[in-house]
Write a structure and sequence with these properties.
The chain is an all-alpha fold and 234 residues long. It has one domain. The chain has seven helices and no strands. It is globular, with a radius of gyration of 18 Å.
Length: 234
């Protein structure tokens, strides 16, 4: 059954959010899409991912994963070439491999994430403490996942969470350079050429991304992926 889709700001705040993320302020890297629905994720998928990602990177002195735009990053990635499997070898045989062999599934990343979310969301807890145990069970392959592996699903979400928190904001996450401020990274840009030969000296400028604009947060104002699905509240 198709139901109403809310803006990503509504989905991740107030009464529409789970108790894990209900109190957080929402500020996405791509501010111009705050009032648009997610491109790939359904409302419930976005809420679940916010809770799981915030379990992996909770709020402390720095924003949590969802506060730093990680759910937006994942949504945009699944709507992009990566989610569609561009650049991945998706022909058989699909024997069980090792992490060093790379992607070893017959599904595109978007197909895998969607099927994994369907399995993981069944009976998912509603509180932060329960999500910690839930995430641990996923990582140990202790959650029934049909033909899939809960550990593979956890590993994919953990990878995307790290990427979304620490990648250049041009990709939709790392809002206000939260990840870079956490680790003290000045950014990948060409604005500090006058400093490159000054070794072992502190660099006191705030982080700046590839597309940094004065007063901005590094996100590139560009067209966004077409809505590729996720129109119901799975």
């Amino acid at each position: 059954m198709t139901t109403a889709r809310f803006s990503r700001r509504q989905v991740l705040s107030g009464a529409l959010a789970s108790s894990v993320v209900a109190s957080m302020p929402i500020k996405h890297a791509f501010a111009q899409i705050d009032d648009q629905p997610f491109f790939f994720l359904s409302n419930n998928e976005a809420r679940y991912l916010a809770s799981l990602c915030d379990t992996l990177i909770p709020r402390d002195d720095y924003p949590s994963a969802s506060e730093a735009g990680v759910v937006d990053f994942i949504d945009l990635q699944m709507s992009s070439g990566y989610g569609k499997g561009e650049g991945l070898f998706l022909e058989g045989p699909f024997d069980e491999g090792t992490p060093e062999q790379g992607y070893q599934l017959p599904l595109t990343p978007a197909e895998f994430l969607r099927q994994g979310l369907e399995q993981a969301m069944q009976g998912a807890p509603a509180d932060a403490e329960g999500f910690e145990a839930h995430a641990t069970a996923l990582s140990k392959d202790e959650v029934p996942f049909g033909d899939l592996s809960s550990k593979q699903f956890f590993d994919e979400v953990w990878k995307l969470t790290n990427q979304g928190y620490f990648a250049d904001p041009i990709y939709g996450g790392n809002t206000d350079y939260a990840g870079w401020k956490m680790v003290g990274f000045p950014g990948a840009h060409a604005y500090y050429l006058s400093f490159v030969d000054k070794h072992n000296r502190p660099y006191r400028q705030p982080p700046m991304g590839v597309n940094h604009q004065p007063g901005g947060n590094g996100a590139m104002p560009r067209p966004h992926p077409a809505n590729t699905g996720g129109t119901d509240d799975r």
